[in-house]
Amino acid sequence: MTRRLLPCMNGWLAALPDARDPDLRAYSGGVLIWMGILMYATRLGARRQITPWLGANERVRRRLSVLSEEEVGGVPHGDTLDDFLATLDPAQTQKIVRQMARALLESRRLEEFRLLDRYYLLAGDMSGHLYLGERASAFTQGCLTQKTLEGHTLYYRPACEAKLITRNGMALSFGSEFVENPAGFDPEGGIPQDSELPAAQRLFAGVKEAFPGFPFCLLLDSRYCNETTFALCQEYDWRFIITLKEGSIPSVWKEFQTLRAQTPQNRLVMTGPDQIEYRFAWVNDIAYGARTLNVLECCWTDTDGDHRFVWVTDIPIHADNCDALAHEGGRQRWKIENNGFRAQKHEGFEMEHAYAMRLLAAKNFYLILQIAHMLCQLFECYWHGKKAVKKAFGSLHNLGRFLLESLRRDALLDPHAMRAFLDQPVQIRLNSP
User: Cβ atoms within 10 A of the Cβ of 399, count?
Assistant: First the structure.
């Protein structure tokens, strides 16, 4: 699958800089990155599990050679991987993530998931990466801090993510930005710590630089409902759909409530494929400073009770697009939480586990997790979606275990027949339900 969708993968890995002594390298950087990918894909949960499950296994060595397109002499130890990642600039690993994402865009694999047949949906949010408690050490330098009621200092490392969202459930990393304080930061010095919104500004700037010319629509929660975000989207020529709450922009909220009652023509009631009746209301061109904003409301009632969502957007709203803006746009934002962060924390990837105690290595492990999660999602889609995977393997976690056993044991298929199959051209579509 990787060869079909990402044929340049090993070339990208081979281009990674390697600061290690050439005379002491037993494995290339590309082989070690593949080892990290396999650790996450097989849901081992920790690098110390690499050796007992995959080490000293001739079958694993052969499969690693095929994956990396290099002849490797054995299976790398988890500490060898850690030592390499401690010397690697995370920007280089981030580059691999973005090369993968760009390859999918340029090969037009993701066009089916565009909003209004134009905009790729890009959700942004922050999630906890490492919670270190009270363990003050060199590793906690740069960490965000929080004081408990008892006066203890807690250390933690969040990360801000931009993920491309698709209707069939994928949340593909397009960029990561670590939320951290600069070197020498004094939490008692009166200067505010780094936080989500400044990190998001850096993140989106990196995405714009890496993907110039691609039409994105940002899906964001109410914390981003401000002039800074609106101006950024205008500068980048991006669209936005942002959750609007009463306290987000009070003047816009109040104006929407007033004009909503005065524009009965801006209403639509329609029954969705789930046989639920959805009620839409919208108002365009609400003044906010030097710009105007459009507000869309979607309400419905189901077995869980009454629901109401309100979004602010710069896309003009009308009867022909309000349903798409709500269901294929605004309501898709939650997938960065469930299909992104939740999956990486609770489906065997163990995102919050401390895979390393050196800062560069810890960041690189996080980015390799994004690579592995992207590949796993593409495989799930190739397998006709999560439901089909769960039906075949019992759970997504079990899929990792089946992959682990397939690496450790002899293949049931003739390797020459498999090679001939892999060399055949085929079109892989990612628009499965």
Answer: 24
